[in-house]
Amino acid sequence: MRDSYKCILCRGGRNLCGKDFCPVIMKNRAYAKTLPMLSDELQGSTPPGIFVGRYGYPKVYIGPLIPPYTGNTSQLDTPELWYGKSIEEIVSFRTSLVRGEYPARVDAIEQKDIREIRELALAETSFDLHAKFLKKPNMRIILDDNSQPFGPSAPIEKLEAQNFRANPLLERVYYDTDLRAVDGVIELYERGAFISQIEKAFSAGLIGKKRKLVPTRWSITAVDDTVSKALREEIKGYETIDKFLVYRLDALDNRWQILMLPSTWRYELIEAWYPKTLWNPYSSKVEIFGDHEFYEGRKSYAAIGGCYYASRLAITESLCNMRRQAGAVVMREAHPGYVLPVGVWNVREHVRRALSSKPEEFDTLEQALSYVSQHFDIPLKRWIDTSAIIKDMKAQRRIDEFI
Questions:
Q1: Burial category of 144 from C-beta neighbours within 10 Å (exposed 0-12, middle 13-18, buried 19 and up)
Q2: Cα distance between residue 199 and residue 185, in whole Å
Q3: Domain-by-domain residue ranges, the chain?
Q4: Higher-confidence position of 248 and 338
Q5: If 0-12 CB within 10 Å is exposed, 13-18 middle and 19+ buried, where does residue 374 land?
Q6: H or E element: which one contains 285?
Q7: Which residue from 298, 173, 321 is spatially nearest to 225, judged by alpha carbons?
């Protein structure tokens, strides 16, 4: 049967794609909750949230994210609060966010309408917005493996904010126009701002000397990359761990295992996608691939995408908290229950959560790998064959072998 015909024949009732539940029905069920509440005017409490598109760059669309209800909506745009939520829950409350669209050049940040939208990202808490659209928001739902999903969209005619209160930490960086963007990102992180807050501020062009709008998708990776690079340099000043450590987590039908190695800094992310999963829908075999870096880091963009930098941030955070240096191999088995993309936060937050648990400790690499193999379905040989770092570690002679 041709794959293009499967949805038509199945219509959500026969599971011809092999998934446990129909992603098309899930999306439309989530949208159906929002649809009756939409018109060409909308009153709601933004989390706060804004979105900057990337299509047509350097001419893009910028606008707020607004649900059709008021109250404390901060959870809707704070991925740090999403651990333990199901895919259906995440899609449901994300698709309740209506995206306003206003055309803008990325360098026209001081244009009055654009500046007012940008400054929404300075908010400390949820606040009320009244939006007048040029037409009723349409049904298009955006699902992306890098940025969080969101719901319908429409061009903005007019915006009015109420009960807006700026975050003093974000304001400090916003008004310091002599502060480099990299330094601003690091300052916000060190002062305790959520990564998601920093990403929004960076995307809105609120940080740095030469400011401009940055598409949301790009800003997420830029912030993960910037912070993890800074932490990586700090790690290099610490002593190495003295055991092999393995951390585990199962979430959203993804199995995570992180292998920490007693070595100088090196890092790798390997993902294995089962048939009928999000990025391997039609193959009959598991697809496995990865990217890595050794002590000096990497100069090219990781082919595996933004999840590489999100995972690296979680790894470097953990090692800084331990005040230790190590190598790290992050391994991910994506099983068929992971049917919709929910954003690269999924990688960052689940690796963070795994690393917050107590690890299993081993004296040898072979012992650690044996443990890993017990908790994956994919044979150990495939992981080793894919991993540049494990193969390098197996080939090295450790100094204690000569004692």
A1: middle
A2: 9
A3: 3-162, 168-235, 244-394
A4: 248
A5: exposed
A6: none
A7: 298
AA identity, residue 82: W
- For residue 216, the Cα-to-chain-centroid distance in whole angstroms is 11
Residue with tokens 């005619």: 157
Say which amino acid occupies 112: K
User: Which range scores top for mean pLDDT: 35-49, 210-224, 332-346, 389-403?
Assistant: 210-224
**SS3 of residue 267 by DSSP:** strand
The 3-state secondary structure of 354-401 reads: HHCCCCEEECCHHHHHHHHHHCCCCCHHHHHHHCHHHHHHHHCCCHHH
Percent of the chain with pLDDT over 90: 74
Average per-residue pLDDT in the chain? 88
Alpha carbon distance 368, 352 (integer Å): 20
Element (H, E) at 215: none
Tokens of 66: 């607004």
The tokens 């829950």 sit on which residue? 89
- pLDDT tens digits, 309-327: 999 999 999 999 999 999 9
Mean pLDDT of 225-251: 98
Which one has a higher pLDDT value, 291 or 40? 291
